[in-house]
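request received
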Amino acid sequence: MPRYGAIEAGGTKFVCAVGTGPRDLTTTRIATTSPGQTLARCLEFFAAQGKVDALGVGSFGPVELRPESRRYGHITATPKPGWANADVVGPLSRALAVPIGFDTDVNAAVLGEARWGAARGLRDAVYVTVGTGIGGGALSGGRLAHGLLHPEMGHLLLPREADDQDFVGSCPFHGGRCWEGLAAGPALERRWGQPAETLPAGHRAWDLEARYLGSALATLVLVLSPERLILGGGVMQTPHLLPLVRAQLLRALGGYVQADEILAHVDEYVVAPGLGQDSGILGALALAEAAVATPV
Amino acid sequence: MPRYGAIEAGGTKFVCAVGTGPRDLTTTRIATTSPGQTLARCLEFFAAQGKVDALGVGSFGPVELRPESRRYGHITATPKPGWANADVVGPLSRALAVPIGFDTDVNAAVLGEARWGAARGLRDAVYVTVGTGIGGGALSGGRLAHGLLHPEMGHLLLPREADDQDFVGSCPFHGGRCWEGLAAGPALERRWGQPAETLPAGHRAWDLEARYLGSALATLVLVLSPERLILGGGVMQTPHLLPLVRAQLLRALGGYVQADEILAHVDEYVVAPGLGQDSGILGALALAEAAVATPV
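response:
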């Protein structure tokens, strides 16, 4: 049975793993320092774990995913010190000499959910994380969506709610015009003057938050027509937020999309991750699988 | 050389064609009456034109595209009298006994543009029509995007411009919250009190229109990351609108997407259709080609 390596490359930590799936996974966490030091520590982990047949990497971005680019496998224009234009795939490929699958962290997450989690067997699904930032990955027709670059759906533009006209927003690029600027953790903290995780369940912050999330998911339904929407990330850990979001998605769609899967079964249409906190690392493992199936 | 049939099925007219591509195409127009009568007249045209190897149909919607559905090939919940739940592919398939490719009119259009027009050779592109309504089709990784249903991107939600707060919008489902409700032809007519085609080039209507179109295209870039955006439809015939839209797309993105293709070459990134008014019918022909390559 093939054995794979996986890296979930984040701005704070790199999670590394070796295994075959959710029930057979050895993991470790490495603090993100410089690219050279961080990748060297990943390689030490893999050396200690023995031979793998392929590696998958789900990375923070933006990343270069076009195989024909000479920067393929690099993190590109990140503001994170030391990481702009860092080659991630190159050093790993030279050291391990196995096929490597590489994509964004959120594209990896949706692939992981489609392989083992809440989107199992589906070919069109979206995974969204709502936390310090907002990001999304999409599987379209069984393929991870990317073209010119890759989706940056956390910055899609949103209508302002009538009772929230004055908030300046928290996005450095789009202020209060985009999803992340209106609804990520830092937007909640700036609007209400306290960290999102300290806002009690009945606080009106959550009704407003659910309206913005519902509007954004409506746009994703209208653009991508996914078979399921999976919502992860720190803000989504808030109890009772998910049911509010489902109701607000229905409100935002306004009856336009006539599909029983949404209108009659929204509880199964908008769901929490099936893999809990492991969508990303298991998604990276699924990228490794896919790299052997179709080497890049 | 294979010879194909094509139908662009619209609410007002059906365009039928036989041929092999843009330089070899015989077309006719049939008024849209009842489904039975309209399809019978299409079949008369094909009978007179001789044998085809496959047929492609790009249809107004919503349509059922899931091959496993018993309603595959039907128009579904349209308000158009007589056409709700009309079977389009069934009667054509029984009469012609050839493989049939079936998709939305706008998905057909993006496929046609990728085959012979402004998106030739690309695997990720979006075609948008701005006219009486707004619709969009997407090619994602070489495949037309659909999942649960199909994209209905004309209804994606948009932030309201500060100088346009009071407009009620023209969408029966979303009022002034969605793209179509703010920027389709009927929205222009309702906002300014005269038909869009009578608004002169210097009218401030066009600056506002370009801002809404720029915002919507920004959301499409952020969700789908296409390699090119193609804008067709009646409203886009307005001289000088396209350059305004390009500028407003850049404004809406706010420098977030770091790609020279957008930042330095927006004139080649947002373009008019390469096939003029024929994106739809040629796209249907491309659907026929694809149906033989991979029968559904």
